[in-house]
Write a structure and sequence with these properties.
This protein is mainly alpha-helical and 233 residues long. It contains nine helices and no strands. It has helices spanning 2-8, 50-69, 76-79, 84-96, 110-132, 139-148, 151-164, 170-195, 204-223. α4 (84-96) runs parallel beside α7 and α8 runs antiparallel to α9.
Length: 233
């Protein structure tokens, strides 16, 4: 019978006999640390006016353009990466390459898509090649550098369009050749200046070669561009 009484006894019935004496002090403190605001806290743009956000982004893009035109060992272009500048340069270059004589019947329609495919697909292939060879930068950082370094070639395209306004001839071709070659060399030099340190020393040549081909194709498109002439029937 005693065993039956023990089985029917509530499970936590013994806890009612446990008490804490008032003479036993309870030691310790419970504190919630309150961190003071510092300059290292992440800046939030939720309450910022749209105008200030746009102006700040445009200023950041302009600073990256300066880094490309005067390349030096700086991590600013890699640290604060964005794709606004590459998109702007790609659209500008594609618009200026429209209306080429090679596709005069279609008013140069395919050039816009061709430039987009070459720029973005080429950048992705170079980035994947860099990562497979042991590169230490991220995927989007490499896209940012390759896209921003199209700036000298975009400037060359503007100069070539201005030169072509005076007519196409031997002198015009010589001027465009010099401008495109200089811009091609500047784009290659600037991109390798930012990306070279992120590659193993024994594999830098394998990374530079695709970059050379990438900017060479874009430079060739600029050099061989000729505006279509609207002729009569």
């Amino acid at each position: 019978m005693a065993e039956v009484d023990e089985a029917n006894k509530p499970l936590f019935s013994g806890l009612s006999d446990v008490s804490i004496s008032a003479d036993i002090p309870v030691e310790g403190e419970i504190t919630v640390p309150v961190s003071s605001p510092s300059q290292d806290d992440e800046f939030s743009t939720l309450d910022e006016p749209v105008k200030d956000t746009i102006l700040r982004d445009l200023k950041a893009v302009g600073q990256k353009f300066v880094h490309v035109m005067y390349p030096k060992k700086s991590s600013a272009l890699l640290r604060d990466w964005d794709l606004w500048g590459p998109l702007l340069l790609c659209v500008t270059l594609a618009l200026m390459l429209q209306g080429g004589a090679a596709d005069s019947k279609d008013d140069g329609g395919p050039q816009f898509a061709e430039v987009f495919v070459i720029v973005w697909f080429g950048s992705v292939v170079i980035t994947l090649n860099s990562k497979l060879l042991g590169g230490t930068i991220s995927f989007f950082q490499s896209l940012c550098v390759l896209g921003y370094c199209i700036l000298p070639l975009t400037v060359a395209m503007v100069v070539c369009r201005l030169v072509l306004l005076g007519g196409a001839g031997a002198v015009s071709f010589a001027i465009r050749l010099i401008v495109v070659v200089a811009s091609f060399g500047w784009s290659t030099f600037a991109s390798t200046a930012f990306l070279a340190d992120s590659q193993p020393p024994s594999r830098k040549a394998l990374v530079v070669y695709p970059i050379f081909l990438f900017y060479f194709v874009i430079g060739w498109m600029i050099l061989t561009f000729a505006p279509s002439r609207s002729g009569g029937p």
